[in-house]
Every structure is written in C-alpha cells, then in structure tokens.
Design a protein that fits this description.
The chain is α+β, with helices and mostly antiparallel strands. It is about 30% helix and about 30% strand.
Length: about 325
C-alpha cells in the first residue's frame, strides 16, 4: 500500500508539471574535484589524457539551467507550439555559455577563455580575426550576438545539397510514438522500481525510488525496442549485450514534493562508480516556474559569411596554420 501511495503521489506530481506552459530545470552535479579525478582514473586514461585539475574544478561546480515556454500545456505541445527556450551553463566562477531561442533568432554569449580550458583546445583571440568581423569580435569578448536561423538553414542547404535538391525535413517523433515511449517508461518504473515515503522535512515531503541500475535500463530498452523503426535515423537501439558490464547496484532517487508539486530530484551515483575513492557523486535536478525568455538588448547580428569566413580564419591562425596550409613549425629532420 505504501508503494502504491508513494508512486501515485509522484505520478500526480509529474502530471502537474505537464500542465504547465512554462517551466525551468536546473541540472547540477553534487561532487568535488577529487571525486571527479578518481572517477577519471578508474577509466584508465592514456598518459597525458587525464582530466586536468582546472577542468575537474570547473565541472565540480557546473550547473545547466533550461527554460521552455509554450503556447499550450507542455504535455500537449508540439514543436510549433514552443515560443521560447533558454539554456545556460554556469560554474562557481561564472557563466560558460548562454543561449536563447526566440522566434527566428538564436542569441548567444559565452566565456571563450573558460570554454577553451574545458575543451582543452586553443581558442582564437580578437586580434586573429580578419578586418570587418566585428560580430565575431563581440563573440570573443563575451557580448551577446544573434543568428538568423532561417538564413543558417538556407546556407546549410545550399552548401550540402545537390543543385535543385530540396532540403530534407528534420527527423521528429510523432505524438503517438512519444506517448508510447512514455508508457514504456512508466511500465518499466512500475515493475522495477520500489517506492517509499521518506517522511516530511522542512515543510516538504520526500519519496524515494530504488532500482538496480542495469536491470532498469535493460528492461526499459526491451520495452521500447518494438518502436525502433519509428525513431529518427541514426538513433541506434542498444542491446542487452551493451549493458552487460554496467553495474547492477541499486540506485536511489530522492524526490522532493512541496504541496504536491515536484521541486527537486537527487540521485546518488557514487555506488555506480564502484570505486571507493569516488566519495561524492550525485545528480541534482531542480524544477521551478519558468520565466519567459526575452531577447537581450543590443545583440550584434552575425551573417553567415562572417561566421564561415571569420571563425575559420581565426581558428587556423590560433592553431598556427600558415598560408600554405601547413603548420608553421620546423619539421626539418636531422640528416641521417
């Protein structure tokens, strides 16, 4: 009875989320740099490929915030119903990148230097840009820029298509297939997950859901395998063999409800690492009322010629590629 009651409360909380027209999710890691380095070491990286200390420090405080806004309730919305979307990736030291999609425009700003550290790759500087690339200079200086997505689609079609060819429609899931995926997920959860009420704390109710990791993901993909032909091209379906080495340790998710509404999910992943040195590794998802994304004032518009020409030239300059297309290094070998 307790499992039915706890599971029903969670189901109702998710239904409430689906009735919202705007919602915000914040994804974060509850970990530290030491645990991330231990997790990386457990994968036996090649010498020199270990996670750099500065990257571990950045990721340990990373948060991703996503906001979506629709004209209809989210559980009734199709692609054309969404009128705004925003995403921001931040760390304890500041924002790495932020973008907003409003109408036909995508707005972007980023911390290029910090992104370069995370990716472990050189980044161009404003002085490497060709004359007239004022928009790309704003990109490198962390200012807001905007891109006309319809223009980008036209340019991409012209570059990649045969003369006279019509662009292929973007692969999407039809509403019926989406519903079948959700039903498969619900059936798997109902069969494999143990729900339990963890009581109240600070005015909120906590419900835990526990399941063996390998069994859960294997059962889910077995449920949706009949839908494989309806998935977009390139979406390969993993088999049970792909999961045979995955740990079957029981993983617990803690759901926080306030007045029946889901506000936070915490999943402790440390046991999945199967490494005693990984002491702290959790995934936190927080839900909140989404604020309508707005277009930032003063954003510089980038045209496609500037994007294709400017960044290409800047990246080649940053990597030391000369006019002849060769690295500007001394490759002269000693005489034998």
């Amino acid at each position: 009875m307790e499992q039915l009651s706890a599971g029903k409360k969670l189901d109702e909380a998710f239904e409430k989320l689906g009735k919202e027209k705007s919602i915000s999710f914040e994804f974060g890691l509850d970990t530290d740099a030491q645990s991330l380095r231990a997790l990386d070491a457990s994968t036996d990286p090649e010498p020199g490929d270990e996670i750099p200390d500065e990257v571990a420090d950045l990721l340990s405080g990373a948060k991703i915030t996503v906001t979506v806004q629709s004209k209809k309730p989210l559980d009734e919305s199709g692609e054309k119903d969404y009128v705004g979307m925003a995403m921001k990736v931040g760390t304890k030291d500041g924002d790495l990148i932020e973008y907003r999609v409003i109408g036909d425009y995508t707005y972007i700003r980023s911390d290029i230097d910090s992104l370069g550290k995370v990716m472990g790759a050189p980044v161009p500087s404003a002085k490497d840009l060709p004359p007239g690339a004022s928009g790309l200079k704003d990109v490198l200086e962390g200012k807001w820029v905007k891109i006309d997505m319809k223009e980008m689609e036209r340019t991409a079609a012209e570059l990649g298509a045969e003369p006279g060819a019509k662009p292929s429609p973007e692969p999407t899931l039809d509403a019926r297939t989406q519903q079948q995926l959700l039903e498969a997920l619900r059936e798997t959860i109902a069969r494999e997950v143990d729900f339990k009420s963890a009581g109240e704390k600070d005015g909120s109710e906590h419900i835990t859901a526990t399941a063996p990791f390998r069994t859960l993901i294997t059962e889910f993909f077995d449920e949706i395998r009949p839908l494989a032909k309806k998935l977009p091209p390139g979406a390969e379906m993993p088999t049970a063999k792909d999961f045979k080495d995955a740990p079957n340790t029981k993983v617990t998710a803690d759901f926080t409800l306030v007045n029946g509404e889901l506000t936070e999910v915490y999943v402790d992943l440390a046991k999945l690492a199967e490494d005693a040195k990984v002491k702290k590794l959790g995934l936190v998802v927080r839900m909140g009322e989404g604020q309508a994304p707005t277009a930032p004032a003063g954003a510089t518009e980038l045209d496609m010629d500037e994007i294709l020409g400017g960044f290409g030239a800047a990246m080649m300059e940053a990597e030391g590629v000369g006019e002849e297309g060769l690295l500007e290094e001394d490759f002269t070998e000693d005489a034998a």
